[in-house]
Amino acid sequence: MNYLALTFDDGVNFKTTIPILDILEKYKVVGSFFVCGEHLTEETKPILKRAYRMGCEIDNHSYSHSNMTELSKEDILSEIDRTSRIVFETIGKYPKFFRPPYIAINQSMFDVINLPFICGYGCNDWNSNVSVKERIDGILKQAEDGCIILLHDLYGNDKTVQALDVVIPKLKSLNFELVTVSQLFTLKGIIPTVHKNMLYTNVMNPKVCTW
After folding, report:
1. Do 150 and 7 form a contact (C-beta atoms < 8 A)?
2. Other beta carbons within 10 Å of 144
3. Calpha distance 162→14 (Å, rounded)
4. Does 125 qualify as catalytic in the annotation?
5. Separation between Cα atoms, residue 197 and residue 182, nearest integer Å
6. Entry pTM
7. Catalytic: 9?
8. DSSP state of 21
């Protein structure tokens, strides 16, 4: 059996997150949602609770989706702590992982953020000009045991919703089990590392970042 984690950035919202959850539920699989704290309102928190009840993981994608390489260490911590606190208040559990907005990273971020850094294989699905087929092909081409797939549940990203309805059954037919990021590390017997400049796209082969 091969293991893979589908992950979704920039939510949550009614327009895209809910249809993604519907598809995950349809195929009885889970994903990991890297949320922006500013999107977690009293109106959207029930969506987060539904994802958590389904067995999905809720992780940290900053509060305001700023380029954090341009922030002070104090502001970096504020971006992380505000989002983690809102997630905890909503589901009773703190995020275990962090994905940097724009995958923009620097040493200050690694120094002060007490979460493992997650990247992932993307298919440019944030770009509305990328077709459904291109998204499907991009995901399937990069799928490998231990990998993390980077997708977006940003508002109105309907093409990714359509792509998932094709990709998930195809991945299952290729003997992939879709799990959360935490489960992926556990299944591979790997303890994710903090403060050692590691960026994970495949949990078995992290990139060590240097400047």
Report:
1. yes
2. 13
3. 16
4. no
5. 19
6. 0.98
7. yes
8. H
